[in-house]
Amino acid sequence: MSEINLLVNGQNLSVDTDPDTPLIYVLRNDLDFKGAKLGCALEQCGACIVLVDGEPTNSCVRAAAEFEGMQIETVESFGNPDKMSEVQQVFAEENVAQCGYCIAGIVCSVTALFRKTRQPSDQQIKDTLNRHLCRCGSHSRILEAVYRIRAGVAG
Amino acid sequence: MSAHASLANSPKVSDWLDFSQEGELILHTGKVDIGQRITTALALIAAEELSIPFDSIIVRKTRTDLDPNEGYTAGSFSMQHSGYAIKKATATARHIFIKKASEKLNCSEEQIEISDGQFRAAGTNFSVTFWELLSGVSLDVDIDEDVETKSPSDYVIQNKSHVAKGMVEIMTGKYQYLHDLKFDNMLHARIIRPPHYHCELESLNSEVVNRLKQDKVFVVKDGSFLAVAAEQEYHAVKAARRLSQAAKWKTQKQISEENIYSQLATNKKASFFVEKGCIPSATRKIPQLEKLDESQHVTVSAVYQKPYHMHASIGPSAGCAYYDDKSLKVWTHNQGVYPLRAAITEAFNLKTENVTVQFVPGAGVYGHNGADDAAFDAAIIARHIPKHSILLKWTRDDEHSWEPYGSAMRCEIQASIDSKGKISSWSHETYADTFLTRPITGKEPASRMVSSHYLEDALPWPIAEPMMVPHGGIHRNMEMLYEMPQPRLVKNRVYDLPLRTSALRTLGAYGNVFANEAMINELAERANIDPFTFRLNHLKDERAITVIDKLRYVMENDSAEDEQLGRGIGFARYKNSAAYCAIGVSLSVNDAAEVILHDAYIVCDAGEIVDVEGVRAQLEGGFIQAASWTLYEQVLYERDGIVSRDWDSYPIITFNNIPKMHTHIIEQPGMPYLGAGEGAAGPTAAAIANALKDATGLSLRKMPFNPDAIMAAALEE
Prior knowledge:
The complex is a heterodimer. By secondary structure, chain A is α+β, with helices and mostly antiparallel strands. Chain A has helices spanning about 25-30, 85-95, 105-115, 120-130, 140-150; strands at about 1-10, 10-15, 50, 55, 70-75. In chain A, helix 2 (about 85-95) packs across helix 5 and helix 3 (about 105-115) packs antiparallel against helix 4. In chain B, strand 9 (about 220) and strand 10 (about 225-230) form a beta hairpin. The model of chain B has no long low-confidence stretch (mean pLDDT about 95). Chains A and B meet through helix 1, helix 2, helix 3 and helix 5 of A and helix 5, helix 7 and helix 15 of B.
């Protein structure tokens, strides 16, 4: 066990854990940010994606210790049920989720995309979402919501 | 006693409605929300009938000691079962409350107006709430199924866009999944499975076990069932790897690699003639397959095949359990808490009252995936480690290689048309393994749990009896709505097949509708009649005609439609008793022989619509999931085990190939609810096959329609 210092959602937090522990276990179990989900633990499905220095990043394989000094953001940091972010708000209004297990990762990736550009191309949108698998078939709804955000008709 | 199963089990208003919390209505239901949004639909029904705000209605997560026993959340029955029950319960309650309110407000019942949970005497300022009236009313009364319900013309809440229950929490990371549970004194667990079904534990390196124990890891060994548990989740992950290295397995037999479609045709089987109503007959002799006179009829024969498919949930299954030496509590995301309780009670020889099973949401299950087994596994571990909550998560590898798959199928169809282009004969023989190895209360449910076969006191693998009910499993949707001479339908329940199978969304309907509707197109082509007209020429059912007419209108009027695209359609009424669904597809095939989906046209009649957003999500999601099965998926395996153990070896559809959706729902206010959750799948497969024929001239009859299959079909031409 060793102490790891992480900057998560704007807070400096330290945890005592094995240094090889992948980030997702630290986020979910030690720090209680349960939004990110364990899906494949193989960096294949995107359920575990969080933002690291603004970039969508899988958290299921790389050790938490590798993320020291970096800015980590989870879905919880963008908004809460009383005040959601634009992406969360439009996703909720469009009822995009079915089981919702893939959604936290997708919210992270789409949030990062719109921070970079308000007018992502269709290809940029597909490249962003292509890191995520969904099994309920919510894809078309998610795409519609993303197009709506791009068109600036949120809220 | 009610003919309605849910009301027969739970006949009282108070079985369903609870006003005990001021300002809130709590709904009890035996149906669980697996992402199909049944909680939203039930809350909308209650909100409409009682004029209580949607946000003030809470839908409980089913628990065996507190909520109605409605069997499984399956078969697209949730609205027909729980929706109907909540409708009748709330309507009965409304009449009781109105009577009481009129007494309280000194006015006639006709003068009572209800809104926002309040009763008001018309033209006065006098009002009273449900909760203020509660002390004077008893809801411990029978639900009146003949009660007058609200007129659809007065609806103000149903069939409008609402943000679904739980949606905001999902978006903000606050929705609690089973995987997120946290208790004091909780241990995280992982299991170590054999290489495949037919293995048993030969030895376990005791040094490794001892070292793990020194590292504060609990090691559970029960026969060939192996598990580890630790306070830190990643300790459990690593411990499972170490224990896996320490285990030696003995192979009793290998998995048969003989071609699955040959096995479906030649293995031992039980065959049944399927009579009108899609009911297999135990007694009727199967008539000989005959061919009509070639001078008067055109006859077409074809074999359609689908491989094993996975549920392939994005979240591997999980289960949680706590045992205190007497009673067992289990948390599960499966589709039936009561049958699971029966399995656990039987397996561990416990009293029913000492076992509680609570539903907590998980990732989508789409039938009988690993959820039941994971809960059972957690219970096994909890019995070995009492007084700790055990949160067990299966790995991706566990889920892919041990879940019960949807069976491979083989459908042999021979059909004829006469000189007028009317179907003059139809024979369909369908072959598959069972679609039902779920635990069933009273039918040795413990033996349906996969780990029961590996425990010290191992149970033999059960052999599921053929389902003989209408549209049961393998024969689901063999019978079509089209008018024709009595078809020769034969169900073949095939034995001794290589992989574990059970209920996957639609059971046999997906394969049967694919085969039926692909053959319908082949006949239409021979008759030189367009596929819409050919279908309409064989239909008398007005609602079927309406959805197909509407699909034709929608597809013909899509101005964006590109002439170069291949187009195809498919139609079925799920189980001939649930939603009517007509699907159209436009697609192209690129130079790499990949199918590119452009447009999906969905027309559905699901009776009265309560939650329009939920119905659309089910239809569009059903389309996308079925498109994924059809284009990409097959479980690969070899003699030493399952090969498809992750998303690379079992690819599913991605955001790269999602068509534009054109969804139209036929309004049927006041009509009975018709389940829509599974209606899209079969017609989608057929629409894709038929569009591929239109685009390429190739008849794709063996899934998946991946580049290999398309190139092979092109070479055969």
